[in-house]
Amino acid sequence: MRSRLMAVCLIGLLVGPIACNKKETKTSSATGKPKLGINPNGTGNAGPDESKAPPELKKVFDYIDAHIDEHVENLQKWIQQPSISNSGEGIPESAEMVKGFFDKLGCQTTRVIDVGITEYGSPGNPVVYAKCDEGAPKTVAIYWQYDTMPVTQPDLWVAPPFEGRIIPGKDAGLPNIPRVMIGRGATNSKGPEMAQLNALMAYKQVNGKLPVNLIFIAEGDEERMDIGLRKFFQDHSDLLKEADALYAGGPSEGCVYVELTTSGTKWGRGPTVSDVHGVMKRTTDSPAWRHIHMLASLTSFDGNTPLIQGFFDNMEKPTPAQMDELKKRAANTNLEQMAKNQGVARYMSDDPVEVLKDGRFGTSFNLDGIWGGNMYAGGAGAILPNKITSKHNFRYVPKMNGPDLIKKLRAQLDKNGYKDVEIKLIGDVPWSRGSSSDTDISNAHKKAGELLGVTADRNGPFMMASHYNFLGEDKPLGVSQAEATGGYWPSYLFADGEVGQKVGSISIPMGMGARGGQGGRAHAANEYYAVEGSKWDNGMAGAEKLVAASMYYYSQITTVPPKPKTSAASK
């Protein structure tokens, strides 16, 4: 029997493929390539109860289940296109790629807009704008970022960061997730955004049109303090004037970013023109050592408390009710496991209450990076640098002010004897409290969750996936959108609630409610997005179903009259 099988296989090599193994590789009849075989319902193979779904939605859900392999491949192709805003790598190509997504969706207007020079003196990356007129009464704005962080530690990745490889979760240290896609931007934020686009494409495919009109705003500067998007809102807010709501959003902390530079030229000591040979340290002052001592003068010995006079002025502290919520959560918090999930040895405090409070309502002064002189790892090479630069972000909360913090930094440097140290303001993202969670768009999210059996209590308030739940808890704090912070994004440009600074003319409610999908390790090695979850709602298909249901219910819930629409199709 064995010899006969071998003979058949040899013949197969000559005349065509013959199955010579008991295990067959599933292939797509359309393309001939192997199927991914993604289970939309996860390893439990138990999908949501869709029996109460309106026929319009049920058709969308069925389409998503049938096409989930293609949807995952859409994300794979996007991740394969680098889009690193810090270096500019792939940014023009990515902007055009995103425009192509909106063209494929059928948006009548799609534009890549050059925003020009920003107020910080640097050019902003393009903003991709699209308007999809479905002839609907209501219009939903959708915010995207198409840029990602750089890859700083490539040797630590289990798969190349721009391959979009799909691997078992256990191979990436995620034993509870069946299959994940590894790649820069997987969770921050291409995975969640592609889930949105896939859901919208599916909805239009089976129903002919979407239940709402759409306005997309996709920026390429999120990892550069949103400097280009801020300029866009200053110049082009009118392009969003018909938007009735932002699909998804949430509150934001403030963040201001600076570079500090110490140079022999400004100091008047040490090398003044260029780096010099390291032997010169025997006789010459070092700008590098001056920079290190300057930085040390700005924080406590442990580096955790800024020593900048007036830094904590105007800082709002948690209310008694918020502290009660923190204490309830802390009672069930395992700090050791949380730290492991986040890839850190331990937190500054061993008290769960303090850790949760700092993570939601705290401030920080971080050293993000430093460079100058001999930057080559290993080997040697004697250098006395003539200039050292360090990068810093200040995280702040209501009612603090970013530019005011930089003025206080300048005053402290001068007081400490470092008047020669230069400060370059890279950008500022003011804080936002967001809006009420009792809005049509938030209630649509909640209704979608209820339909599919995902409760707001389980998932808490909806926030941008890349800025959600920094501490790695199983679920976020039970606080309202108007109260929570933790991670910055340009909420202040959209929000109809209180903001640290108003830029532009847009003021709309932001969607809060149940969410699906799962991802993590933003800004870190082995960033991932779960393409197949342990259950239906933490995989990509589940995320798409919640998007489709939220859009449907928003079209059905109208307590606030929609804004007038100017397009002919909506008259």
Automatic annotation (TrEMBL):
Keyword Kinase: no
Biological-process GO terms, alphabetical: lysine biosynthetic process via diaminopimelate; proteolysis
Record's GO cellular component terms: cytosol
Annotated InterPro entries: Cyt/Met_Dipeptidase, Peptidase_M20
Domain of life: Bacteria
Pfam families, sorted: Peptidase_M20
Name used for this protein in its record: M20/M25/M40 family metallo-hydrolase
Lineage: Bacteria, Pseudomonadati, Acidobacteriota, Terriglobia, Terriglobales
